[in-house]
């Protein structure tokens, strides 16, 4: 409960947390030492020193005796003042009675005052002016006497020196530790960056570094990355190999069919063409989404040019809302293919399509909407699977798709570290397909 509440105030990054963990104990320790030091030692020392001054004051009083004559009084004190480094004078008779004067930061001054007030007979007031003097006012038979005592005789000299030294070295040590700590954290940060980049389809160079555990995690990541890459490669090789190898016999078949009587060959030729289209789709799919390195692309321009291409083919495709501006690191070729696929679905299953682009600080969204029947929520997962075609009755005469279109789009979105999201278009009523990618 308590920690849950605390969590929202804690920094998120590893560096900041490490810094906090380093600094907290140092600050706590310094506070503790400062408080204990002031409370105990400073007070004790001050009390002891005040006792000494107290004794000296009683000695002076004894020497002065009970005379009410001010000059005589001062004369009697005279021989003792210099050795005790004190000064003495009387407060003018008509002057107001002196009051305590203590700055808010006079911690030790307060101790002195309390001690004197309790133990000094005839105590009137103390003053701690900014100068190095401390003034003590006493009732004597001759009037109120002002004794000036050197401040250093009462309280420890420059007690804050210890605290200043401690804070300074504490700070210095923390900085040094943080520099070392940072070197320890750097490999973790690097691993996180490389893993994130790989998730977004980019391969950054990386070699395990740092403490043993980080190295182990790093090597595990490299193994994993290698295995995933090998798998992608194998898939690509296999699919493209199969499709490529099948093309030659298909072409031969086509040629042979051309020799046969046309009426008889017609349906067979159609089958062969369909097989060829299928193979093309396979090849397309197997080429994969992650070819080439991403480069800064203006998604609005990309969308506009794709839409333009469709319009030239007299399809009802329009450019909807464009918000935000800027470039996003994309593989233009694959992103174009993804948009093409979505639009081709939209105009195949609907009649109108609308493409909109939303760019924010953190993400990019390419949206394709249509006025077709849409895909029921329960079937959206299936629709994205390779070779999945929904409800054949529904799109019987819409030409034969292979069922790879959405799978390719999802693949491309994932290779960019994003996702494909299907929904229902609010305005057009058909499918709404969003490609969402973090920037
Ligand atoms: N805009 C859409 N409106 C309604 N249904 C759709 C829409 N897009 C896709 N679907 C459904 O999802 C299924 C899968 O789509 P996908 O694009 O993956 O394959 P396809 O269009 O059948 O074939 P391909 O795109 O490979 O030629 C389609 O068969 C169709 O039933
Ligand atoms: Mg399709």
TrEMBL record:
<keyword id="KW-0472">Membrane</keyword>
<dbReference type="Pfam" id="PF00672">
    <property type="entry name" value="HAMP"/>
</dbReference>
<keyword id="KW-0547">Nucleotide-binding</keyword>
<keyword id="KW-0597">Phosphoprotein</keyword>
<keyword id="KW-0067">ATP-binding</keyword>
<feature type="transmembrane region" description="Helical">
    <location>
        <begin position="162"/>
        <end position="181"/>
    </location>
</feature>
<dbReference type="InterPro" id="IPR003661">
    <property type="entry name" value="HisK_dim/P_dom"/>
</dbReference>
<keyword id="KW-0997">Cell inner membrane</keyword>
<keyword id="KW-1003">Cell membrane</keyword>
<feature type="transmembrane region" description="Helical">
    <location>
        <begin position="14"/>
        <end position="38"/>
    </location>
</feature>
<dbReference type="InterPro" id="IPR036890">
    <property type="entry name" value="HATPase_C_sf"/>
</dbReference>
<keyword id="KW-0808">Transferase</keyword>
<keyword id="KW-1133">Transmembrane helix</keyword>
<feature type="domain" description="HAMP">
    <location>
        <begin position="182"/>
        <end position="233"/>
    </location>
</feature>
<dbReference type="InterPro" id="IPR036097">
    <property type="entry name" value="HisK_dim/P_sf"/>
</dbReference>
<dbReference type="InterPro" id="IPR003594">
    <property type="entry name" value="HATPase_dom"/>
</dbReference>
<keyword id="KW-0902">Two-component regulatory system</keyword>
<keyword id="KW-0418">Kinase</keyword>
<keyword id="KW-0812">Transmembrane</keyword>
<dbReference type="InterPro" id="IPR004358">
    <property type="entry name" value="Sig_transdc_His_kin-like_C"/>
</dbReference>
<dbReference type="InterPro" id="IPR050980">
    <property type="entry name" value="2C_sensor_his_kinase"/>
</dbReference>
<dbReference type="Pfam" id="PF00512">
    <property type="entry name" value="HisKA"/>
</dbReference>
<dbReference type="Pfam" id="PF02518">
    <property type="entry name" value="HATPase_c"/>
</dbReference>
<dbReference type="InterPro" id="IPR005467">
    <property type="entry name" value="His_kinase_dom"/>
</dbReference>
<dbReference type="GO" id="GO:0005524">
    <property type="term" value="F:ATP binding"/>
</dbReference>
<protein>
    <recommendedName>
        <fullName>histidine kinase</fullName>
        <ecNumber>2.7.13.3</ecNumber>
    </recommendedName>
</protein>
<dbReference type="InterPro" id="IPR003660">
    <property type="entry name" value="HAMP_dom"/>
</dbReference>
<feature type="domain" description="Histidine kinase">
    <location>
        <begin position="241"/>
        <end position="439"/>
    </location>
</feature>
């Amino acid at each position: 409960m308590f920690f849950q509440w605390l969590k929202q105030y804690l920094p998120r990054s590893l560096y900041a947390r490490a810094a906090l963990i380093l600094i907290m104990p140092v600050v706590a320790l310094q506070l503790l030492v400062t408080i204990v030091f002031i409370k105990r030692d400073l007070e004790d020392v001050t009390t002891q020193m005040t006792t000494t001054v107290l004794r000296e004051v009683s000695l002076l009083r004894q020497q002065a005796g009970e005379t009410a004559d001010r000059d005589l009084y001062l004369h009697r004190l005279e021989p003792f003042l210099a050795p005790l480094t004190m000064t003495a004078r009387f407060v003018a008779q008509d002057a107001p009675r002196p009051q305590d004067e203590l700055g808010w930061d006079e911690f030790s001054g307060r101790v002195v005052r309390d001690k004197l007030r309790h133990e000094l007979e005839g105590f009137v007031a103390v003053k701690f002016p900014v100068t190095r003097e401390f003034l003590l006012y006493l009732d004597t038979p001759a009037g109120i006497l002002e004794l000036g005592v050197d401040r250093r005789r009462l309280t420890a000299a420059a007690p804050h020196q210890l605290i200043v030294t401690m804070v300074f070295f504490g700070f210095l040590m923390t900085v040094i530790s943080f520099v070392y700590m940072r070197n320890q954290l750097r490999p973790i940060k690097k691993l996180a960056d490389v893993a994130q980049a790989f998730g977004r389809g980019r391969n950054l160079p990386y070699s395990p570094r740092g403490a043993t555990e980080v190295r182990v995690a790093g090597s595990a990541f490299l193994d994993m990355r290698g295995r995933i890459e090998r798998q992608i490669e194998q898939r690509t090789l296999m699919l493209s190999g199969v499709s490529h190898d099948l093309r030659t016999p298909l072409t031969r078949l086509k040629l042979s069919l051309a020799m046969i009587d046309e009426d008889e060959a017609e349906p067979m030729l159609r089958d062969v063409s369909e097989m060829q289209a299928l193979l093309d789709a396979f090849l397309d799919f197997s080429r994969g989404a992650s070819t080439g390195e991403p480069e800064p692309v203006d998604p609005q321009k990309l969308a506009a040019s794709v839409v333009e291409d469709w319009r030239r083919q007299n399809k009802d495709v329009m450019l909807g809302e464009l918000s935000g501006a800027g470039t996003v690191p994309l593989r233009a070729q694959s992103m174009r293919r993804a948009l093409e696929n979505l639009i081709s679905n939209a105009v195949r299953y609907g009649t109108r399509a609308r493409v909109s682009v939303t760019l924010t600080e953190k993400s990019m969204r390419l949206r394709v909407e249509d006025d077709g029947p849409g895909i029921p929520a329960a079937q959206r997962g299936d629709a994205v699977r390779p070779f999945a075609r929904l409800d054949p009755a529904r799109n019987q005469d819409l030409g034969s798709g292979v069922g790879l279109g959405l799978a390719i789009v999802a693949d491309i979105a994932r290779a960019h570290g994003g996702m494909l999201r299907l929904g229902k278009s609010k305005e057009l009523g058909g499918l709404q397909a969003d490609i969402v990618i973090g920037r």
